[in-house]
Amino acid sequence: MAYGTVNTDIVSDSSGGRLAPISSVFRNRIINGGCVIDQRNAGASVTITNTSNTTYTLDRWGAYGSQASKFSVQQNAGSATPPVGYSKYLGVTSLSAYSVLTADYFNLLQYIEGYNIADLGWGTANAKTVTLSFQVYSSLTGTFGGSLSNASNYSYPFTYTISSANTWTTISVTIAGPTSGTWATDNSRGIQLSFGLGSGATGYAGTAGSWSANYYLTATGTVSVVGTNGATFYITGVQLEVGSSATGYEYRQYTTEMQLCQRYYEKSYDTNVVAGTASSLGEFFATGTSDSGGNCYASIRFAVLKRAQATMTGYKGDGTGTGSWQYERSGSSGSFASNFDAVGYGGFRCYTNNGSAGFTATVIYGHWTASAEL
Amino acid sequence: MYQLKNTLDGGQVILRVADYANIPFDEANTDYQAFKKDLANGVELQDANGTAMTASEITAFLATLK
Prior knowledge:
The structure holds two protein chains of two kinds.
Chain A lengths: L10 E2 L5 E2 L26 E2 L7 E2 L5 E4 L5 E5 L14 E5 L10 E9 L16 E9 L3 E8 L5 E8 L6 E7 L13 E11 L5 E2 L11 E2 L12 E11 L11 H9 L2 E3 L16 E5 L6 E7 L9 E5 L8 E6 L2 E6 L1 E3 L5 E7 L8 E10 L3
Parallel strand pairs in A: 14-15
Antiparallel strand pairs in A: 1-2, 3-6, 4-5, 5-8, 6-7, 7-16, 8-13, 9-12, 9-16, 10-11, 10-13, 17-25, 18-25, 19-24, 20-25, 21-22, 21-25, 23-24
Chain B lengths: L1 E5 L5 E5 L4 E3 L6 H11 L4 E2 L8 H10 L2
Parallel strand pairs in B: 1-4
Antiparallel strand pairs in B: 1-2, 2-3
């Protein structure tokens, strides 16, 4: 073997754990796979009620149900002991015993940005094989399903088995990359990873183990979590990487994981404070003189560049209102609709329009959230 | 329900009334994508004065969007 060559693709530590070579740092294409970041809900439970669009739960993790209020999502739901080496998990709890209709589907998902999968060559003859691995725990046993798909019309349903209830199980699924289909390599949805929680016989469930030109979100004949009242489905350590075998979960430092999440969602509040809560910590204050039109501005930079122009929402720091900020000046104070403009990838402007010239020495303050989810 | 809002920079944003979210006119923004889908499905849109737009006005408005 030539000097400087390592003739192996797996390096093991003394306890048998697989170590990835240094060159594969950031090999995990999943963000927040360890479920440690929960900016929106700070550990609170969210019932999935929106049947039109994805509801974001823990950072980067979305959930969808074609029927409202059939399950909830919460970081460390049920207070199970996480698997060894992890402190957090994403917990799904079924809220009823719902019999799925033919066109129903319920799932947990993560959209991976096209920029982060561009090297996979999917949709070409050089498509790379990937391996999905995760830790899963459920009150149910049997064959569960999920899929990898593009944004709308090409997918690979897969299955995995949980043999022991309420026991963390390590799952690994290797998938040969698709040589067909359209796979975005820009800031739009590249790959969608879906974990099925219940699906009808047609529509969004397909035969496991092969690619097809369909938008399947799970495999047919798999366990319906929403079908059993109180059923639980917990997951963590989710990793999607290039290669035909799973390597150890790639732990990233908390700050790095947070910054990866903030490309898609950021807030002015402290990490453990839910937007809309009364809190002055992190609240933005600006002091200045309004312009001739009575407008007072505040320009704010994001901590991390956003994937797209973000949806902005303002909050009063005293917790009494969404969609507004507050102002003060000599002899007067109040609130105003939080107006946002000049929203770019790097920052935005918030302003009050008091409509009176010479509205001097105005202080404006409030909290904000920015969402640029996929 | 949505409402158009004029902004100081001469543009507009879309106010999602249910949660006061300000949605930019950016094709890459998924809330904007949902806004267009909602309008096509008959969800109400108010102009910047707070007047509900008619179906034909919404159709014309959608036609101006890419």
